[in-house]
């Protein structure tokens, strides 16, 4: 390996294991270029050390995403990580794994906050970075502890609680164009997310169930029964669905804008696609449907998300459910009240010796 000069910059040329090498040192000073040459020779002599010294966040991120696909993760999970990793690579991609520090990560956090990203979103992006570095560690490219790179960051996540009453849903459907209203009604009637609604086919609707084409997790692809709670809205949806080529609905790219306008006309607070799933969950739990059953309807593997995020109940709902399941207290051969029964026991109680008569 030797140096040669092209213009003002010194370059490296030579052969390694039969492979021709020609690289710029990016240095105009020969002494500094000589340092780069010696470093490159050491890297070529020790491939493991070379990988650790040249790997970047971007290269590690690509391997991490490939590993997710090879592990058979669902398309929804892979897409979610691609989105989070995209921001990490955009701001940290050129950073060498050997050099990245908490200073870089804090700068990433500050930039994302300036871009108005929510703390919970940033927390998930840092989780993606953690997964990238763990993958790099297993590949021998990252040899330091994660604590040296990722600082503590509070997500401060407060789940949304918005859900629609039946009257609110009917009102907003009346203020939406029929084809769009059909998509909203279908989302509630089947607890479908936005992607599932966009993929819904006419052939998915069967006499006793509806096939939901979910992809976020393995449990999201499911069949939900046609039940009386949602019958009115499912029938409305099927009547007004205006999709083509077998699809139930037309693509809807500006849903947020259209819904905001319809909600304003209806005099209710706006909502998101996920709020429609929360609406379905809330109607189920408010009617006393067991959490494990409601979770299956939503396509969740456990009841955790239903309890924390989706199933909304106020004190009135809780009270009605308790009253509906309360068995009145009765006494054998008597209709005495609890107070009368208590007085009876006090009157017949044997008083301790020495107590005033």
CATH topology of the largest domain: hpI Integrase, Chain A
Give the total of domains.
3
CATH superfamily label of the largest domain:
Intergrase catalytic core
CATH class of the largest domain: Mainly Alpha
The CATH level-2 architecture of the largest domain is identified as: Orthogonal Bundle
Poorly predicted tracts of residues? none
Topology as a string of helices (H) and strands (E): EEEHHHHHHHHHEEHHHHHHH
Instruction: Report the helical percentage.
Output: 40-55%
Instruction: Tell me the span between the first and last alpha carbons.
Output: 114 Å
Structural class: mainly alpha
Quantity of strands, as a count? 5
| Largest sheet: spatial strand order | 1-2-3
Number of helices: 16
What is the quaternary state of this protein? single chain
Shape, please? elongated
Overall mean pLDDT stands at 85
Q: Which features characterize this protein?
A:
357 residues, mainly alpha, DNA polymerase, domain 1, hpI Integrase, Chain A, three-stranded antiparallel beta sheet, two-stranded antiparallel sheet, elongated
